[in-house]
Design a protein that fits this description.
This protein is α/β, with parallel strands linked by helices. The protein has 2 domains: 15-46 and 294-389, Aspartate Aminotransferase, domain 1 (Alpha-Beta Complex); 49-292, Type I PLP-dependent aspartate aminotransferase-like (Major domain) (Aspartate Aminotransferase, domain 2, 3-Layer(aba) Sandwich), CATH 3.40.640. Helices cover 37% and strands 18% of the residues. It is built from 12 helices and 15 strands. The longest helix is centred in the last third of the chain and has 20 residues, at 295-314. The site of 4'-deoxy-4'-aminopyridoxal-5'-phosphate (PMP) has 15 residues, from α4. 4'-deoxy-4'-aminopyridoxal-5'-phosphate binds at residues 38, 94-96, 99, 127-129, 181, 185-186, 214, 216-217, 242.
Amino acid sequence: MSNLMNTYLQLPVTFARGEGVWLWDETGKRYLDALAGVAVCGLGHCHPKLVAALCEQAGTLIHTSNLYHIGRQEQLASRLAALSGMDNAFFCNSGAEANEAAIKLARLYGHGRNIDLPTIIVMEKSFHGRTMATLTASGNRKVQAGFEPLLTGFARVPYNDLEAVTQVAVHNKNVVAILVEPYQGEGGVNVPQASYLQGLRHLCDQNGWLLMLDEVQCGIGRSGKWFAFQHSGIMPDVITLAKGLGSGVPIGACLAKGTAAEVFKPGNHASTFGGNPLVCAAALTTLQVIEEEDLLRNAMEVGDFMRSMFKAQLAGLPDVRQIRGQGLMIGIELSKPCGELVKEALKRGLLINVTSDKVVRLLPPLVMQRSEAEQVVDTLSALVKEFLMA
Ligand code: PMP
């Protein structure tokens, strides 16, 4: 019997080592990682510059109270502000915590405008985390079931539907913000329609709402730009980040701009470990390596290459509904549930994921090269064809 709480449906492999896009299990078998720890390892596994930066920082200072070690955090906040156009940052330890900060920020913002019951518009099929506020915000009954009572203060609309948001604005005067993933990850790699984010920005401007983007999965280079919203030309009020920011070292961030950046005051919010010197070193090195190795361009090019290869190999099949995504965030939607593909892929030395029951999701490291990408596409396409014919 395991002493671990029974929260994960474990897969029959334990990895012992990683390097770049490769992982090795305890028996020495090698796997190609097209999942990157679910979007965490943009630099690939154990990038030497990341390892060196962590070792150096670990031997210098790992942690003190947030009242004393603001220096490293300021460096990181300033770098993120320059890359995103935001004004400031709050650091925490995960995506859920970054979204908690955004939700609390929106509620404070609402109370500041004399709205007693601030309401945040959220999307169907969204995923924002597993804490009570973030699972309430998520549009997925599976993560909510059994945890009732859920929180109040959320209004849900379909993703990619501007009219539904407009209707909420007409009927609900308590709305203070919209929280949306620019590209939905867990919900099936759903891509925003042209002008969707611009439309949301416009509605926020008209109504005095904050536009809050959850870039936990699609941010930090995953989409081929630093941030996914940068494909749309708009500027949000709040951005949440985690996953790829620390390359596997737990860090989350809530960035804010303008009025939103003025909302929190000392004493409003805190996190013991949030943004300690060790995780800031990991994040600063991650951003530095993405730039030095031109990984945004690589993500864009290799992602386009993979989608076009998948289209060439699979698009004609009647049970392949759609091949979509942006950069190295790739979804292949089939017409039937395909969870069993994950174990089959593992047997063939490939890590993939299935989300929303019918969507094969790939989130390869941003360092993936064309030759490795070709291997991923060939192995997976063969597997999908066998699965659909069985
Ligand atoms: N937001 C999004 C868009 C996510 O994909 C995830 C994780 N899958 C989260 C939030 C939650 O992040 P964490 O597991 O770090 O709390």
